Amino acid sequence: MKIFKRTKAKKDAKIAEGIKSLTDKFKLREKIEKANQWADKHNKRVSVITISMLMLSLIIGSWLTLTSTYNEADMLSDFTEVKPAFDGIRRIQRLKSMQVDQTVELTNKGQQLKHDLDSLVRLPIKSHQDSVDIVVKYRQLELVVKYLDNKQ
Q: Were 126 and a residue from 59, 102, 130, 141 both cysteine, which residue would form a disulfide, CB within 3.0 to 4.6 Å?
């Protein structure tokens, strides 16, 4: 963690040094001080210039907006390119939810089969049909468990 802090500090120092050398080279500090002194002496002119520039940018921006050839049909055509992607995402989500539902359904069926199998095994006297049911339910339970193990 200290290594990252040191390298970041070194990078920050290099950036600060680069900015300082640029300001010294172009004498920006002195120019900014002169501009601030002039602005302090001529408050009304600075206000008029600022408001004029803002109005000019507003007028130019409005004019560019009104005279542009870009229409809404072009904007809406970009949305139609995105539609297939969203349809694909919806399809994937629908398939995932179906898979989850099937897994829950199989889990419930496996629990029911286990319960039925346990109750058949506990019978003190079993008929031939009970023995057949035990074998069938055991194989069904094996299939459900094997399917659920493969899913995970």
A: 130
